[in-house]
Write a structure and sequence with these properties.
With 229 residues, the protein is an alpha+beta fold. It contains two helices and eleven strands; from the N terminus they run αβββββββββββα. A six-stranded mixed sheet has the order 2-11-10-5-6-7, with no helix packed on it. The protein has a three-stranded antiparallel sheet with strand order 3-9-8, with no helix packed on it. The chain has a two-stranded antiparallel ribbon with strand order 1-4. The termini are far apart.
């Protein structure tokens, strides 16, 4: 039964077309200042070696618009910028197709450049894949990104955890030290009490011995005197 399932699995895997395995990557969101330049990255994963016929295509959909327009295309080893679009004089290809990089550079940004940029790539025979999009936000001043805020929160939480752990071990150390001190004090108290009892016993023994020694001659003298009479 297991052998039959294995054979079926191999047959099914062999029948899956490898041309469906291309995955395209871009950033999720980019922030930039008015008048600045911004790089929009695009790369892909493919099962095959990078083909000489690799292609990259970029399209742009302004905020509030329903349709996208083509702004850049790379094919046959040459880049082509749309000569009528909003970036005809402000777009530069800065990628490296040999390394599966189809990045572009947008120059001299303006508020009107806000929108969604979509990258699509083909690496024959891998030509089927979902395009990836990145949103561009242009500001007069770049706001604090969500990643920075998240990083700060994580840093604070980790700091608090380290502080709690440090306090916990410090309390354990202080408690252990206190217990040790009490134990030593108790032992010293028992030793002192035993010493006092020993001294009292010696003193009592000495006293009894002295008393016995003192009364023995007196008894002897008294008896001798009575006989003489």
């Amino acid at each position: 039964m297991i052998t039959l399932l294995t054979v079926i699995s191999v047959v099914l895997l062999a029948s899956v077309p490898r041309s469906e395995s291309i995955v395209i990557y871009t950033g999720w969101e980019r922030h930039a200042l008015v008048g600045a330049d911004v790089r929009l990255s695009c790369s892909f994963f493919s099962w095959h070696w990078t083909s000489e016929d690799v292609t990259f295509s970029w399209s742009y959909r302004p905020d509030g618009a329903k349709d996208s327009i083509s702004i850049f295309h790379y094919t046959g080893g040459a880049p082509y910028v749309d000569n009528k679009g909003p970036f005809r004089d402000r777009l530069e290809f800065v990628g490296n197709p040999g390394r599966r990089d189809g990045s572009i550079l947008l120059k001299n940004l303006d508020f009107g450049d806000n929108g969604t940029f979509t990258c699509d790539a083909k690496n024959p025979p891998d030509i089927v894949g979902r395009a990836s999009s990145v949103r561009l936000l242009v500001f007069e001043k770049v706001p604090v990104q969500a990643g920075v805020i998240t990083g700060a929160i994580i840093g604070v939480v980790l700091g608090l955890l380290v502080l709690v752990v440090a306090i916990y071990y410090l309390m354990r150390f202080l408690v252990a030290r206190r217990v040790f001190s009490l134990s030593v004090s108790k032992k010293k108290g028992k030793g002192k009490e035993g010493s006092q009892q020993k001294q009292a016993s010696v003193f009592l023994h000495t006293l009894i011995h002295t008393h016995t020694h003192t009364h023995t001659p007196l008894t002897h003298t008294h008896t001798h005197t009575h006989t003489h009479k």
